[in-house]
Amino acid sequence: MDHIPLSHLSFDRGIERITYSREDTPLELPAREQAAPPDIDVQPELQALLSLPTLDDSLNAALRPQLANRELLAPSRFRQALETTLHGLTEAAQKAQTSADAGLAEGGDNARVLNRAVRLLKEESALRELLQMYRSALYQG
Asked: Which residues fall within 8 angstroms of residue 56, CB to CB, at 6 or more apart?
């Protein structure tokens, strides 16, 4: 068996070159709430070059909702937006109720719709809290 000297081998060449990180920069993962949503994955460059769009890809692209603010897909941002919306709807429902009490006919319909929206959002928040409680109970064992 021939002996291959290691001085001739170079392990920093290949399909992509190896990059060396500096020792003084700490590497850390993003915070749990700040991580990118799972559907925003990074597609490898080779796969992006070689994959051709299929009918399934076209259907998925057509059916996927267009989001103006993709940060809402992060759980903490969604929870914050839900709480802000609930607070705003509660204030609007109170204003509509006072205008309905003042005798405006349009205020009564608005108050009914807004109160229903507030009730639904409160139910949603209660279900999310229950889910969190069950999840923590499962983690505890």
From this structure: none
Token duo for residue 140? 């505890």
Helix and strand totals (H; E) in the chain:
4, 0
Per-residue pLDDT of the chain (141 residues; tens, 9 = 90+): 566 555 555 555 555 555 555 566 666 776 666 666 666 666 677 777 777 788 888 898 899 888 888 888 888 888 999 999 999 999 999 998 888 887 766 667 888 999 999 999 999 999 999 999 999 999 997
Locate 17 and state its tokens: 């070159």
Tokens of 71: 């940060």
DSSP 7: T
Rounded CA gap, 134 and 5, in Å? Answer: 60
b/e per residue 61-90 (b: at least 16 CB within 10 A): eeeeeeeeeeeeebeebeeeeeeeebeebb
CA distances to 44, 63, 66 from 57, rounded to whole Å, are: 17, 10, 15
